[in-house]
Design a protein that fits this description.
mainly alpha; globular
């Protein structure tokens, strides 16, 4: 909004410093600062309002140290995160950019889904919250929107300089009448994505469909939508499971978003993309501003969410954050990096899956269920073993930093 306003006014007014709004670095810095300030200043006001409305967490007795002290802590704090993200994005992003539009839609969509879940838990006093089928419907709906636009929008293109069909030569005529030839890259609509550790060979989902007809295009669209639904659902629910200890999901998510922001900047910059030999995605660099706003919002929320937490994000925050990460990765075509980058989320989810599966099988075999972990998700296992909550959180953050560094290293380890 501010970018468009400054560009419009710049047409007939000489505004000092107006040109800075044309730089991603300036707008990204502004976004992270503004989001951080909003989170810290208005976060306190939101917490007071939540306390006034008696919107507190109903803690189940799980035998964990410090658990009873958390009873009544305000929840639905995800409102702070989402508000702190959307305001800087609306002010500083190019709102005509298709990728920014998709991220705004995803943020609001999943925020409403998570809010409905929290509302039912807090106000309707139904501990289960929103029924699982409605969550699935919401995630499927977003997957259809993202998958369809990624497959058919003329604004969503990729430039692969390794493909001769994407390179053309044009004549450039200078002011003195001389002419020269230059090579230009042509964008194409595609369902290609980056394969980690592999050089000069992106994976195309269309390869899984043995047909180049219109029916094959439809089948590719359906396949891509299924992939989008799976990734959005998996990452969103995994982030939700990780949100069980003060500051854990917030800090881990901030580190993940930083990496996605770096990848978006590199993918949206033709020179850097060419140097790193990765797909150039025109327009995706604008997502750097969104990522900066998201990081600022998460750090601002962490001001109140660190141990002992003054507020919990609830499903309003965790479902939205996980979905934002998933959609962001899909837009910059780095979804196959998520198992590495989101390693903490993966371990948290698999600990639950393994525990439930093993318990059911041993109960069927021996008549009594047995457990692999003392408690799941796995951060509760370490709590049961007597580790202080802050030590668990910080160590998980350190592991996430290592995963983030390794993810960035895959750009060269190929």
């Amino acid at each position: 909004m501010l970018k468009a306003l400054v560009e419009y006014l710049g047409g007939f007014l000489d505004i000092p410093g107006a040109g800075m709004f044309g730089y991603l670095s300036f707008r990204s810095a502004g976004a992270i600062i503004l989001a951080l300030i909003l989170g810290m200043i208005f976060g306190g006001k939101v917490i007071k309002w939540l306390k006034k409305k008696q919107i507190g967490e109903d803690i189940r007795e799980l035998g964990l140290e410090g658990q009873t002290e958390k009873k009544g802590t305000p929840t639905m704090g995800g409102i702070i995160i989402l508000g702190s993200v959307l305001i800087p994005v609306l002010l500083l992003c190019d709102l005509q950019n298709i990728y920014v539009k998709l991220m705004i839609i995803s943020t609001i969509w999943l925020g409403i889904l998570g809010f409905a879940d929290d509302y039912i838990k807090v106000f309707r006093k139904h501990k289960e919250g929103l029924q699982g089928k409605f969550k699935v419907i919401g995630q499927v709906g977003l997957g259809i929107i993202v998958g369809t636009i990624m497959c058919f929008s003329e604004q969503v293109v990729v430039v692969d300089k390794n493909n001769p069909e994407n390179v053309a030569t044009e004549v450039v005529i200078s002011e003195d009448g001389t002419h020269d030839f230059q090579t230009v890259a042509i964008g194409e609509r595609t369902t290609k994505t980056t394969i980690p550790f592999v050089k000069n060979n992106e994976f195309d989902y269309h390869w899984l469909i043995p047909s180049d007809s219109k029916a094959g295009d439809v089948a590719t669209w359906v396949l891509y939508i299924l992939v989008a639904i799976f990734i959005i659902t998996a990452v969103s629910n995994s982030a939700n499971l990780t949100d069980g200890v003060d500051g854990l999901a917030t800090g881990v998510s901030a580190i993940i978003i930083v990496v996605l922001g770096v990848l978006a900047y590199l993918s949206g910059h033709s020179i850097y993309a060419d140097y790193l030999n990765i797909m150039y995605i025109p327009g995706s660099g604008e997502l750097t501003v969104f990522a900066a706003a998201m990081v600022g919002a998460l750090i601002g929320f962490l001001w109140y969410n660190c141990h002992p937490a003054q507020v919990f994000m609830g499903d309003t925050g965790s479902l939205a954050i996980g979905g934002i990460i998933a959609v962001f990765a899909l837009l910059i075509r780095k979804e196959l990096l998520l198992p590495i980058l989101c390693g903490i989320f993966v371990v948290e989810s698999f600990s639950v899956i393994l525990q439930v599966t093993y318990f059911k099988r041993t109960k069927k075999k021996y008549g009594e269920g047995r457990r692999i972990f003392l408690m799941t998700p796995i951060h509760h296992h370490y709590q049961k073993k007597g580790f202080p909550e802050t030590k668990i959180v910080v160590r998980f953050w350190i592991i996430q930093i290592l995963l983030a560094a390794f993810t960035l290293a895959t750009l060269k380890i190929r």
